[in-house]
Amino acid sequence: MSLPAFFARLGIASLLMVTTSGLVHAQTRLFIANQGGNIGILKANTGTPIGSVSVSGSLLGIATHRVQPIVFVTSSSANLVHAVSGNAVLWSVATGSRPHGVAVSRLGTELIVANLGDNSVTLIDVSSRTATATILVGMAPTGVAASPTTQRVYVANAGSASISVIDIDTRTVVATWSTSNFPLDNPVDSPVGLAVSPDGAKLYVANSGSASVSVHDTVTGSETARVSVGGFPSGIAVSPDGTRVVVANGFDGSASIIDATSNALIGTINGVGALPAGVAIASDSTEAYVVSAGSNSFARIDLSNLALAPGLGPTGAQPANLGTFYIADTSSSCTLDIDGNGGAPDAATDGMLVLRYLLGFRGTGLTSGAVGFGATLSDAQIETRLASMTFDFDGNHTDRAATDGLMLVRLMLGIRGSALGNAAGGTPEATLLANVRAQHGDGCFPP
Fold it and tell me: Has residue 333 been placed in a domain?
């Protein structure tokens, strides 16, 4: 069966790549992008529905931000990528034709979107919320994965059996690796899903056409191993501890478990659902989660015992979550320690840095006299961190010093009530606090 035919069976025109965050307090969560423009939120250890986020369009790709609890969702039908936080869309940016996979760069400052319809990749600056480059790649680009250690991004070209390697700094394709032993006019592999090892040294490729996972050295691009798995593998993930690779096999209703050290198949988990497509792995590497489009369900896999765990549950209609859709409990986290000194958000330092950044200050003008004692981040790192963040607390889709920045400083000073809301056009205190926690973590400004 061809790639388009398989995804037609999923009830979608093409591939779905997913990772999302609609913030639900004090829960470790799974986010399921469903075809009706809805993202269902499930409790990870039970599959119990605990919330949802409405997003217009046919949702295909999702990626979580590396710093903030924000997710980015591609809508193939509208040629857009949406930034979602809490229960709202923060902003939207136009992409190329039929966007599919999306990833966040290592520094969290840029989005990388694969556009299957015009064989291109769109780079989007998170801070300015604008598309900054369009890069031509191979045929039918689908999956995207960003290196955790370099500025490189990998794109799976299902139509040309290749991987495009993009350097984000130069905005160019610096290498193209074949995934097949056959000529490119016979793309038997049809690579779809991608995952990078935690140390950035290996790229794992789910080859839907050859029922295999190939392992590539990220320095040379050479294939170092190939593992036979089930029929039509698509979703793939590497455990955070780097010991396991899990791939969803769409035709077999199974998931394959690979030992990342020996590159050996160590388990096949049957009965995960019909047409499984998406895989994510818990932050402690103990469990994997598989989403199946044909049965509208998700399953948990115990990676210690290599067996299904309790918690099989329903999702919305036709999910095909290729990519990471697991977010750990954020009940005690807050990303507003801008200077990295380990303290609670401080108006004189963290607040001042945000205000200055929103006013356009950069370099030493940004950081001079505004970095707290024991800060661990350099001036350049502070600026990069701020560039990757969103500060739209009043919900008007714009980050402004006179409203959002001032309101944040007042929060840090302990001001509440009408004086707080007056800094943001009369927005109610409860709404402002909810937006801050949605964008920067549930641990910000606890009651």
Answer: no
27: amino acid identity, one letter: Q
Global confidence as pTM: 0.80
- pLDDT band of residue 131 (cuts 50, 70, 90) is very high
Same domain, 308 and 429: no
Among residues 171, 252, 256, 184, which one has the least CA distance to residue 213? 256
Please measure the distance between the N-terminal and C-terminal CA atoms of the chain and give it in whole angstroms. Answer: 55
Share of the chain above pLDDT 70, in %: 85
CA dihedral 211, 20, 67, 233 (to 10 degrees): 0
Rg (CA), the chain: 21
Q: Which amino acid is at 421?
A: G
415 and 312, same structural domain? no
Edge-first strand order for the sheet with 326-327 is: 49-54, 38-43, 29-34, 326-327
The verdict on 371 and 315 lying in the same domain is no
**In terms of domains, do 24 and 80 share one?**
yes
Which of 58, 90, 89, 94 is CA-nearest to residue 75? Answer: 58
Reported as a single tens digit per residue, the pLDDT across 90-105 is 889 999 999 998 999 9
What total number of domains does the chain contain?
2
Q: What is the pLDDT of residues 221-251, one digit of tens each?
A: 999 999 999 999 998 999 999 999 999 999 9
Q: Containing domain of residue 374, as a range? A: 347-440
- Whether residues 198 and 316 share a domain: the answer is yes
